[in-house]
Amino acid sequence: MIAQLVGFLIRNLPVLLLMLALIIAFSRRDGSMAERLLAWVLLLPIGVTGLWAGTSHVFFPAVAAAHIGWEVSPFQFEVGMADLAIGVTACIAFWRDLNFKAAAVSAASIFLLGDAVGHVRQMLLAGNFAPGNAGVPFYMDIICPLLAIGLVVVARRSKHYGTTT
After folding, report:
1. What span, in angstroms and rounded, lies between the C-alpha atoms of 40 and 91?
2. Is the pTM here over 0.85, yes or no?
3. Where are the domains of the chain?
């Protein structure tokens, strides 16, 4: 029972972190809603997930590869380092200004949306529908960057027009 619960939490960590980010952002009252939500999305589902994915690829490559439906590859170290870089940058962005957040969103979005394209290619060309390829990671590679991009746009407009959201 405990092992199944831990497995469920690990497999669904990005979604759980997104839900937690939404709950925290909506429960707080400091700053504009768009900037507050952006900060929490950067910290939790993008930042912490990047750290978790990077750690998995670098230190547990066999486990990460099996979850994605891959064979172990030397490229996992490189993917892991990119995940760690995105994760660290997104976590730092939580405490920084909107310009830094926008830069972090740009880097994370290129990486994550590129990952999503890779997942689609694997589904179409290799028939890879493993949970780590066609499940939560695929959807979160689309949802998180698009949400973050939208929040940057709304936050910028709010600052430009002097409104709060």
Report:
1. 9
2. yes
3. 31-161
